[in-house]
Amino acid sequence: MWCEAGGFFVxxxxxxxxxxxxxxxxxHARAGHAAVLTTAATAAIMRARWxxxxxxxxxxxxxxxxxxxxxxxxxxxxxxxxxxxAQVVLEHAGTRVVISGDFKRRPDPxxxxxxxxxxDVFVTEATFGLPVFRHPSDAGEVGKLLExxxxxxxxxxxxxxxxxxxxQRLIALLRAAGYDRPIFLHGALQAxxxxxxxxxxxxxxxxxxxxxxxxxxxxxxxxxxxxxxxDRWARAFPEPLTALASGWMRxxxxxxxxxxxxxxxxxxxxDWDELTQTLDDVGAPTVLVxxxxxxxxxxxxxxRGFAADALSLAGYEDDADA
Length: 322
Fold this sequence. Notes:
Rossmann fold; alpha/beta; 18 strands; 7-stranded mixed β-sheet; 2 domains; Metallo-beta-lactamase, Chain A; 6-stranded parallel β-sheet
């Protein structure tokens, strides 16, 4: 999204001179910008992923702190999506625009909760913008995983999770459910778990799922990238039972296509009820819908009396592991 008055982009899909970044997922935070404004945690994520190539200059700001960029007042508010995720608040010539970025409304101890702010224009994501997407309780889905581990102690439980956000949130949910055993990690997940820990997120005992111990992990919970579930890496575990934590697991055909035995409907995005409630809570007379199933949410917003339209953006695809 281009802000003409300020001369900057929000979450541009290619390197630009000035960018405001909502969060660290790769479809929103790209390497190579000349100057970036974002939260401290997102800055740390970008540096962890790309090092010196992350950006020419990254300016971290705290939630609620204001910056004037080309005549536009910019501030960031928590989005509740992942660590460091932010909504972008733009104020210029008496008009306030809020760009949600990716967000959710459910409690999550690994990141700051979403904050509603009244505005004139609200730009909302719609990843799960269809009424069929009503996520069940997180505790209930984690309970399925723990019950499976109890019923099948001879099987290693391999859970596919996105490395940034979903991994750490699932660990936190397991800890909240009373699971205090070590949780084993694929090597691709360790660095971002370490980053979360450095930012004060307690994850408990974590262990590498190293080659020498995999055959000994019957009954244990092992987290890995979703792609690893179909890799020969997974076959080294005793009778592996595959699970996948994603909002897309609401669609059973997706679980079957990926060979997932235990689909867990756990998402870091707002579901239909959260999306529609947020429109009412924010109360912006103009709503722009992007990044997902725009048509249904636009129709709903118009029925509720909002002036609503779809805002199609290039460079954003469905998050397969949302």
